[in-house]
Amino acid sequence: SAFWFGVRLISEAVASLPCIYYQRLPGGGKERAADEDLYELVHDTPNDEMTSMVYRETSQAHVVTWGNCYSEIERRGNGQPKALWPLTPNSVAVDRDKAGRIIYRTAGLGTSIPAPADRMLHVPGLGFDGLVGYSVVAKARQAIGLGLATERFGGTFFGNNARPAGILQHDLSPKPEVRAEMRESWTREHGGPNTNRVGVLWGGWKYNAIGTSPEDAQFLESRAFQREEIGLWLNIPPFKLGVSKAATYASVEQFAIDFVVHTIRPWL
Prior knowledge:
By secondary structure, the protein is an alpha+beta fold. It is 41% helix and 20% strand. A 3-stranded antiparallel beta sheet has the order 4-3-8. It is elongated, with a radius of gyration of 29 Å.
């Protein structure tokens, strides 16, 4: 959940900002080039099926998880871009032709279709050669896997209650059928939605509660640690992922600024 939230946090933050197409002025400065076709392409609708925010949110999620995002550039007859179509990163491979020029091979119907670099908008994340980004999921698989294991443990812990909530005790040794009848009666009266009902015992029976908290198994500590680990992989301040032990009223504003400067700005 922490990894999913982190990817969503970065993708939504980047996509929610306006993407404006500018032109530089001869005397310096810039102004919106609202009359240009590219303005509508990047600011409003990159294609006939997506808004600008949906397109950029999808692309950003691709590059945060896969390490790359690819968009095929659909061009008009005069060569001007007409639309941008995002491609799933696992269907694209970066290669070079015999002349050494970069080409992109896209998988389709069992074939590999080469596309020249001017037909592809490619944004790579951190990588080994500056051309293809590392897959963050692949690099962080151990941290993500430990987080998944912790969640599974939590589901089992609370689903099975880890241990009995209490023990019905008798000083003598009642017959098995008496013990079974008492257990069923107690479960029927105090199980499920009746958990907080006041119990009444007789005939020498005693109830001893067993207190086992997730803290004793360091469950909550492990959850918080995994959130911090995911924050490191995604470069997100811990408080943005719900780890608030280091956050104070005075530091939250600084953490928010840190998120903008060190997490969002590099992607922008």
